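Quality-control log, excerpt.
Job 1 of 2 completed; input and output follow.
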Amino acid sequence: MALNAATLVPLVTAATNDRAKLSENFPALQLDQREKLPVSVQSLLAYIDSETALSAFRGGQYRFVGGGGDVQPYMLVHFLVDRAAVTSAEVAVSDLERYLQAPEIPCVQRILVCGVGASAPFEIEPGTTFIPWGQIKDADEILEQEAARVRAGALFSYPSGVIDREIVLPKILVDPGREPPSVNDWSNTDTSTLALALQLVCPDAVALPANWIRFPDWCVIWQRGMRYLWVNLERTGTHQMTETDITELRSLLTRIRALGQKDYDTLRLATSRLVLAQSHMQPVERAIDLRIAYEMTFFMGDTGDPRYQGELRFRLAMHAAKLLGQAKTADERKQIFKVGRDLYDMCSGAIHSGRISSDFDGERGQRLLSEGATMVRLALKEMLMNGKPSWPDVLMA
């Protein structure tokens, strides 16, 4: 049912002219103490009470992914008056009409990124674009808040860009007395796949410390601050993406989405530990998380019994050497084996004693942690692109 614009526009105009008085009495508007409100606002509320098309705004409910709540008349007054003050009463009423007729709301999910840079914006996939930090032309209030939070809470991490994803949310507006359905489909707002793919491309830690949904101006019911991640890393570098990296990123996204739930969970956990291992300031913390990532990675597909600790050090190093050294010389495979073996010793020592052994102190230990992280990242990419290895076949090759 269409709104009566000829009646509503003058009401919105009059209420907007009394906006200052409305602000002074805003608690009365929320508490429905109409006698304290300007006559113009009372008249607008009376229209909302009588208009059939606005029945859901009289105590109904709304739902979006991640939230929802009651819909009261004051919310609609607030929207119309604020929108008219910025544009006009005619635009505000037109926006309300558009909202009422829309079955869904086209939105943008904005994701703050640390650790990934680029010389220019690039499309990750249709509807998903990475924008370098210095080239964001439409910064919003939440972006400024989140960027300040990252800078204040991290030692060496700074925002390096944003990812904007076009998403569509169903509009669910339910009349009073009816039970609204739950909205639990997070599939088009989930950032995990992007985070995994970016980390497997970039050699340094990657963080997506927050993301939120930007609703269109004509969306009457919306929420500020729908933040879904709260992760601050101690440090990140900034890897500048090349055309080769971008091509690889797209390929990895396709592969990750094709994984079954069990393999996805394993990849996610191994990669998250790799991120932490690369972001810690303290070598002990780096070693502990890297040991977890290392063991998880090089046991993927292994059907042997990991309880045999006596051979664990050897098996992991051999897996690394054979998997990553398939196209390398014998000496290069020996070097990978040595890195794997030394990494195991260093990380195990950190886990058991809470410190880095003098054998791996200083530059040698830092280099080993870096080489170990690279080894894990390359192996995860190899397995993602070509499947979990059949270790008997790999070891006999």
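Job 2 of 2 completed; input and output follow.
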Amino acid sequence: MAVTNAVDAEATQRILAEWLSLKVGEAKVDSVEVPTASGFSNQTILFAATWTENAQEARRELVARVQPSGPSVFEGYDVELEARVMNAIAACSPVPVPRVLFVETDAAVLGAPFIIMDRIHGRVPADDPPFPVGGWVMELTDAERAILHDNGLKALVQVHDVDPREVGLEDHDPEQPGADALERQLRYYERYFEWAAEGDPNPTIEAAFEWLRKNQPSRLGPVVLSWGDSRPGNMMFADDLSVAGVLDWEMVTLGERALDVGYWLFTMRHHTEGVGVPLPGGFPTAEETVTRYEEISGHKIENLHYYEAFAGLRLSLFMVRVARLLVAGGALPPDTEMAVNNPSTQLLAKVLGLPAPRGASESFIGKR
């Protein structure tokens, strides 16, 4: 999901140099790179900075992750929470996350709150178009793709092994009503639908909510730290196909292991069946993925079908919001049916045995 980026690199370089100088003493900033397109969530600015540390000149490659200043996928963001979680995970676990150096909540600096973190290097499986369609992942051998996927799954297990108390999330979302982690998530996304849809009907999503409520598990498995946006496209891989970074923590929460595993499976299905391409050679089937996860983690996945449906619902909800943003940006006509009929809603309907969405199917892929 991408839109054209209008950030002025020269002005950003000057602003960052002035801001950093207030934090660390005189600082120089160069090599500013602003991607030509960015997602509807946080914006990324790459740069290098030099300042004096311990009487020696130190040069760092850094990333500014800037909260959206305008309409975006989520109604609210919490860069302080992201920073706290990432640094706590880095300190207490082997999960490879970038170290956050600074947090700025004053929107006057870059137009929105932001965090500054160490830059890591590697390659990210593409979402637009999805990596099974083409690109560097498809240039790997089957054996290499198997290694990539297995390393990604191991990193997911490492996330779930983090004690929520170690990152200060044992009471995450206490302001959200609900008796348990799943109930809080359901209520959150019910409110999200009201906000994103702005009253427009969506039969598939409405039926999915009804199914999720009717089939809500009476007993939950152990609650763990949930990454939230768990998929290969949010991981950076090194040349040896190890995971160099686990990225994008804006959806971090608490939940059963199946909350992330179901999301992993559904997004893989979206990137293959959803866009009409086969599962790449070397990638395990859904059943093999679950078996491997259980083997690595030593934990049984419970309520998986439920959480696969929940993943489909969440992706479908995001498409409702994305469709509205694309219409507002002129990339889609006002009468588009993308919010109702897209690969996510089609797959969600299949998972739950619902009637297929009506109308012309449309995907965000390639929309600018």
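Post-run check on job 2. Residues 3 and 368 are 5 Å apart (CA to CA).
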